[in-house]
Amino acid sequence: MSRTPDPVANLVDPSGQTASRAATIFGSARRAVNRIAETFSIETLSDDRSTSASNESSVVLYGQFDSKRFLTCGDAGQVALFSAAHAADRFGFPLQDFDLVMIPHHGSRSNVGPTVLNRLFGFPMIFPEQRFTAVVSASEQDPDHPRRVVLNAFKRRGGYWQTTEDGAFQYRSDLPLHAGYSPVDEKPFFDMVED
């Protein structure tokens, strides 16, 4: 069975807006009301969510080029990420020492929890210092991703996060900046996140 919803872009409500646009506006308003406070010492991300079996079948890829370590997580959830951490231990690959990490499933809170993040990246720091770059692939048109609670969780663990919502960017090491690119600004810690 396909997980792709039926298109609704051609349906128009009485106000003249497309149904999908109206749903987006309603969903954004609902999410704006359901926010809770976070601080660097108070994390509200939980371990009690899960994702689909197809997401848990995603490939988790560890790579090392020269001295740089990379972790790409695809759409993996907590089960797949724990399995990858156990495999890394068996093969002697170091955890908690990455240079570049792809945040799973567009920054969904259903795919990560504090326990697996602690295992992979270390425990939260009260005064986080940048230890790695965390990239989330997310569309500007998707108001549900990335979740602020997930971005905060990575930041607590030293992740200097970036999102493709802001446009194309490059990750480089010991190379000159390509023409048309400029250094990116540090992203914020959010004091209000999704409930």
How would you describe this structure to a colleague?
- The protein is α/β, with parallel strands linked by helices and 195 residues long.
- It has two domains: 9-38; 44-165, no CATH class.
- It contains five helices and seven strands, in the order H-E-H-E-E-H-E-H-E-H-E-E.
- It has helices at residues 19-33, 53-56, 78-91, 114-121, 148-156, and strands spanning 35-37, 61-65, 68-72, 100-102, 132-136, 159-163, 192-194.
- The strands form two sheets. The chain has a five-stranded mixed beta sheet, with helices on one face. Strands 1-7 form a two-stranded antiparallel sheet.
- The longest helix has 15 residues, at 19-33.
How many β-strand runs?
A: 7
Radius of gyration: 18 Å
What is the distance, rounded to the nearest whole angstrom, between the alpha carbons of the first and last residues?
A: 30 Å
In the predicted model, the low-confidence regions spanning at least 5 consecutive residues are 4-19
Counted by DSSP, the helix tally is 5
| Major sheet details | 5 strands, mixed
Helix and strand sequence: HEHEEHEHEHEE
Strand content is 5-15%
Oligomer type = single chain
Secondary structural class: alpha/beta
